[in-house]
């Protein structure tokens, strides 16, 4: 169980991203799709997270949503400008990012929370139970292994599997019911 | 849908997001020294690796909160288990509750801020000829600098201030009524709280084009605004004369196309089209024949490709293209 320690910069960043950016990732992916740019959405999203991670601090960012969406647009266009293949679509077709779209932050956070819960529900039963013990009930992987009579390796593997469902499906349109 | 159906196990090469998931699972149980080194190396190897890893850490945090419907427990007897340590936050809406409590207790924004960083600092950004640069300002706004432009950005507690020292820039301003966003150039101030507009420094004045919302225009040092300029309008202050004129959607698009590396020619002369290209490129396009220069042209081009314009014009007007060092010459 990883209880966030806010004095650790990595944990503080994770909590901030969890509240300010993850809830808006779906909109960023939608924008990328709507833009018609032939770019790899996962690459762009990862680079946008890396851009935030590279900042000394995020205290100045008033709107995580605006910052993230702007970064996504800028990275996508940068990538397009670098590409050697001539883009035949006129460039001015690339839509603006609707930063001002006032989807209330609170609602987006609630959505993100539900979406994570929904994805966990899709896990096979054993995987879900192990994930639940480690992530929600507060047991360590070692305690979980002992309690369930499994090896620690198995518990870690199931955790990785559960995390992979979150990392590969969260915020993706095709993963929605 | 069953997870195994989605091929997460069957894929030969795991995606970056899957590798990141594996690292988070390992970090969850504690990393050995060797693993820590390996993780750091993996994160440093590619920007996307690091992005994917911090995202996965955030997702792990997110997944610590949801209240799941009472799924079947693997262990039948709760006495087998050590007491639960985290039940206190297993409540519906826990993320929001947690956000509120963190914000109340320490102030997340303050907490994450490096001491001394709150002071105003002026950042200077310069683009070379042909360079178009997008700046994500850390309060959420965006500035896009056109070719051969210089700006100084100074974020102060009460005002967000940008000076256009040369060239032109477009701004998408993050909404904040308590902290107006001001762009200064040649004695003119454009003030906004949340809108999008372009400011051009002219030799003897300034030009402001508003694409979204409303911008208040001031003369530097005066408190009474000259006017409120709404979306779809251009304000020009030059030779001591001020002029406001509405722009059609098409003209607006044309005036802002540079941000995406495009030039939209909309019935202007070939000579002025060439001049526009020459602002962005070291390779200069010259039109030797004045009659040719007065031809009006339409079309969409990339700013970095004057060659394409020369070729298109040569075909359309039966002219010839000659290359001479850094010059492309269009002639009869």
What do you see in this structure?
- The complex is a heterodimer of chains A (177) and B (332).
- Chain A has 177 residues and is an all-alpha fold.
- Chain A has 2 domains: 1-102, no CATH class; 104-177, Arc Repressor Mutant, subunit A.
- Chain A is 64% helix and 0% strand.
- Chain A is built from 8 helices and no strands.
- In chain A, helix 2 runs parallel beside helix 4 (64-82), helix 3 packs across helix 4 and helix 7 packs across helix 8.
- Chain A starts with 8 loop residues before the first helix and ends in an 8-residue tail after the last helix.
- By secondary structure, chain B is an alpha+beta fold.
- Chain B has 3 domains: 3-68 and 88-111, no CATH class; 122-251, Jelly Rolls (Sandwich), CATH 2.60.120; 261-331, 3-Layer(bab) Sandwich (Phage tail protein beta-alpha-beta fold), CATH 3.55.50.
- Chain B is 29% helix and 32% strand.
- Chain B has 9 helices and 19 strands.
- Chain B has a 7-stranded mixed sheet with strand order 1-4-5-7-8-11-12, with no helix packed on it. In chain B, strands 2-3-6-9-10-13-14 form a 7-stranded antiparallel sheet, with no helix packed on it. A 3-stranded mixed sheet of chain B has the order 16-19-18.
- The longest helix of chain B is centred in the first third of the chain and has 16 residues, at 47-62.
- The model of chain B is unreliable at 1-10 and 66-120 (pLDDT under 50).
- The chains are: A mainly alpha (177), B alpha+beta (332).
- Chains A and B meet through helix 1, helix 3, helix 4, helix 5 and helix 6 of A and helix 1, helix 3, helix 4 and helix 5 of B.
């Amino acid at each position: 169980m990883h209880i966030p320690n806010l004095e650790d910069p990595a944990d503080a960043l994770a909590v901030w991203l969890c509240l300010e950016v993850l809830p808006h990732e779906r909109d960023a992916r939608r924008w990328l799709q709507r833009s018609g740019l032939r770019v790899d959405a996962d690459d762009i999203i990862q680079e946008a997270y890396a851009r935030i991670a590279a900042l000394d601090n995020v205290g100045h960012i008033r709107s995580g949503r605006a910052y993230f969406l702007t970064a996504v647009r800028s990275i996508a266009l940068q990538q397009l400008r670098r590409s050697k293949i001539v883009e035949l679509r006129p460039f001015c077709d690339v839509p603006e990012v609707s930063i001002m779209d006032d989807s209330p932050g609170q609602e987006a956070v609630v959505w993100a929370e539900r979406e994570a819960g929904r994805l966990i529900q899709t896990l096979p039963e054993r995987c879900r139970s192990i994930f639940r013990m480690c992530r929600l009930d507060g047991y360590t992987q070692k305690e979980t292994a002992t309690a369930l009579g499994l090896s620690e390796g198995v518990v870690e593997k199931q955790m990785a599997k559960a995390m992979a469902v979150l990392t590969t499906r969260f915020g993706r349109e095709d993963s929605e019911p | 849908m069953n997870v195994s159906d989605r091929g997460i196990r069957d894929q030969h090469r795991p995606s970056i997001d899957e590798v990141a998931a594996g690292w988070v699972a390992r970090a969850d149980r504690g990393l050995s020294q060797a693993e820590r080194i390996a993780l750091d190396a993996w994160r440093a190897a590619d920007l996307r690796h690091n992005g994917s890893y911090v995202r996965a850490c955030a997702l792990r945090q997110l997944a610590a909160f949801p209240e799941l419907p009472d799924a079947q427990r693997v262990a039948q007897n709760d006495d087998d288990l050590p007491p639960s340590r985290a039940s206190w936050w297993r409540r519906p809406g826990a993320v929001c509750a947690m956000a509120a409590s963190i914000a109340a207790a320490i102030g997340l924004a303050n907490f994450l801020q490096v001491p001394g960083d709150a002071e105003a600092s002026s950042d200077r950004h310069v683009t070379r000829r042909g360079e178009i640069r997008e700046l994500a300002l850390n309060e959420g706004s965006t500035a896009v600098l056109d070719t051969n432009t210089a700006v100084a950005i100074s974020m102060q507690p009460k005002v967000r201030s940008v000076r256009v020292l040369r060239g032109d820039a477009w701004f998408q301003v993050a909404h904040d009524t308590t902290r107006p966003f001001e762009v200064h150039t040649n004695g003119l101030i454009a003030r906004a709280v949340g809108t999008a507009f372009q400011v051009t420094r002219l030799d003897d004045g300034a030009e402001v084009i508003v694409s979204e919302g409303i911008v208040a225009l001031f003369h530097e040092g005066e408190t009474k605004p000259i006017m409120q300029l709404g979306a779809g309008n251009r304000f020009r202050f030059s030779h001591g004369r001020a002029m406001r004129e509405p722009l059609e959607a098409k003209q607006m698009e044309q005036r802002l196309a540079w941000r995406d590396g495009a030039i939209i020619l909309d019935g202007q002369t070939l000579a002025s089209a060439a001049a526009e290209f020459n602002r962005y490129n070291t390779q200069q396009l010259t039109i030797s024949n004045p009659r040719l220069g007065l031809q009006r042209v339409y079309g969409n081009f990339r700013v970095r490709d004057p060659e394409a314009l020369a070729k298109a014009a040569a075909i359309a007007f039966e002219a010839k293209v000659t290359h001479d060092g850094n010059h492309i010459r269009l002639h009869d």
